[in-house]
Amino acid sequence: xxxxxxxxxxxxxxxxxxxxxxxxxxxxxxxxxxxxxxxxxxxxxxxxxxxxxxxxxxxxxxxxxxxxxxxxxxxxxxxxxxxxxxxxxxxxxxxxxxxxxxxxxxxxxxxxxxxxxxxxxxxxxxxxxxxxxxxxxxxxxxx
Amino acid sequence: xxxxxxxxxxxxxxxxxxxxxxxxxxxxxxxxxxxxxxxxxxxxxxxxxxxxxxxxxxxxxxxxxxxxxxxxxxxxxxxxxxxxxxxxxxxxxxxxxxxxxxxxxxxxxxxxxxxxxxxxxxxxxxxxxxxxxxxxxxxxxxxxxxxxxxxxxxxxxxxxxxxxxxxxxxxxxxxxxxxxxxxxxxxxxxxxxxxxxxxxxxxxxxxxxxxxxxxxxxxxxxxxxxxxxxxxxxxxxxxxxxxxxxxxxxxxxxxxxxxxxxxxxxxxxxxxxxxxxxxxxxxxxxxxxxxxxxxxxxxxxxxxxxxxxxxxxx
Lengths: 143, 314
Prior knowledge:
The complex is a heterodimer.
Chain A: E1 10-16, H1 20-27, E2 37-44, E3 50-56, H2 64-70, E4 75-80, E5 83-89, E6 95-97, E7 118-123, E8 129-132, E9 138-140
Chain B: H1 16-31, E1 44-49, H2 55-66, E2 70-74, H3 88-98, E3 101-106, H4 111-116, E4 123-128, H5 134-148, E5 155-159, H6 166-175, E6 182-186, H7 195-204, E7 208-212, E8 224-227, H8 238-244, E9 263-265, H9 286-305
Parallel strand pairs in B: 1-2, 1-3, 3-4, 5-6, 5-8, 6-7, 8-9
Helix pairs in contact in B: 1-5, 1-9, 2-9, 5-6, 5-9
């Protein structure tokens, strides 16, 4: 059985759907940092069959909106003195700014640097779709 | 209700009551245009046309001149600072200080919305790519209101390019907000109304939509037939345009089953989608529609500028 120590002060991103851990690891650019980071993949979960976990021995700013886009099942635990200080559930964000591009090739956000792509959640049932604030086209977010 | 200082980017920016305010003022202007010939004295309209337009630009210019105002701007991006790579935001920040109200046409969808975020003057969307053309919608609704007596409850057929046709997107979105609208969408499969728009309208409003490729099949039930041009400039390749451009051509013969009071509308310019033999038919109202466009834009600009429109007794 693989054993990984608890962290003293930092962040644990828990309940990540298996396979998404590496995507989040890359999005947070954790491969380039100089503090301890652990990516655990396919570990046993009480609720799920398996899950991924990321442990970060540092209190970095985590973009919960971005995490919600990748995997709305995630829980973010803030650790202080080796105990969980707070727990945050991420969710599919209702509004997203600047995290992905509009799929419409004629949309102004694909041409003008002042135009930061902004989206409103349009459909969160089967396929997550966002409506562009500028051209109103629907874009599905795929990491 | 006060439209002073507001932008018009999408017809949905205005409530139905606010749209009605525009139509009521336009109606007064139609009845006595001269009474309004000085209400915009000292006011300037800035025209920012990033792609060619004759009708819309001249219609705006005529509307402002008929109210005693002045105009400045550019009608071709190639001859303005835009060609030097200036951003929309910078252009609008500057022009917003030169003019009191701005109208923008741009080939990129959402550009007027972006402009409105940086402008101190009200911005009117004069058409953005295949997205929206709200003042054409005001024109269309004013025409329907003037000639049919009411906007709600009609069976409206849209024919031609429903995929890229921004006038269609704006009009169908706005008509859906009025009660009891039924739409017949006539187009080749490649130019159907975007699925996202259709789904959105059906979800939000109690509307009936019928889609067909056959122009004559539903002719007898149509109250308003809205013809559109297959627009060459919206295609990425010439072959697709050539294949689809003559899909629907309306002529007198095809009108034999039409209601005697059916209205034939077209945002103009037309190429060959309406035969010249239809022009003499009393049901053809597209030139009247273009005339109403001046009044719709006069009323809109007067209200956005907040000028005194109470001309009675002057």
